[in-house]
Amino acid sequence: MRTFYKNFKESEKAQVAAAIETLLEEFMSKTTGVLRKLSQDKFIAVIEEQHLNEIIKSKFSILDNARNITVSEKKQYYYPFHRSRSRRFDS
């Protein structure tokens, strides 16, 4: 994300960061999961499998929403979102 931000004004950086955080909070509010901010540009989400299945069915639509974040009416920025692979631990 630091490379992504390098050509932004400070005010634009703050707007994008706030928009991303709001998007994630709204997204997670539809689940029983937990979202934690690990650093300026890293979050971790823990959700139940039922919600994960819904997210998979929607083809991770949150990524499209994040990519469409605008900072001003004349600019649209692409944020390089990635989903990390997780391990499933069965008991």
What brief labels describe this structure?
two-stranded antiparallel ribbon; elongated; single chain; 4 helices; about 90 residues; alpha+beta
Could you explain the architecture of this structure?
With 91 residues, this protein is α+β, with helices and mostly antiparallel strands. Helix content is 44%, strand content 18%. It is built from 4 helices and 4 strands. The chain has helices at 2-5, 10-29, 49-57, 61-67; strands at 34-39, 42-46, 70-72, 75-76. The chain has a two-stranded antiparallel ribbon with strand order 1-2. The protein is elongated and about 40 Å long. It starts with a helix and ends in a 15-residue tail after the last strand. The model has no long low-confidence stretch (mean pLDDT 79).
Give a brief outline of the structure.
With 91 residues, the chain is an alpha+beta fold. Helix content is 44%, strand content 18%.
Question: Which consecutive residue ranges, at least 5 long each, have pLDDT under 50?
Answer: none
- Work out the helicity level: 40-55%
User: Would you tell me the overall average pLDDT?
Assistant: 79
What is the H/E order? HHEEHHEE
User: Biggest β-sheet: count, sense, barrel?
Assistant: 2 strands, antiparallel
- In whole angstroms, the N-to-C terminal distance is 36 Å
**Structural class estimated from helices and strands:** alpha+beta
Strand order of the biggest β-sheet: 1-2
What's the β-strand tally? 4
- What would you report as the Rg, rounded to the nearest angstrom? 14 Å
Instruction: Quote the beta fraction.
Output: 15-25%
Q: What's the tally of helices?
A: 4
| Shape designation | elongated
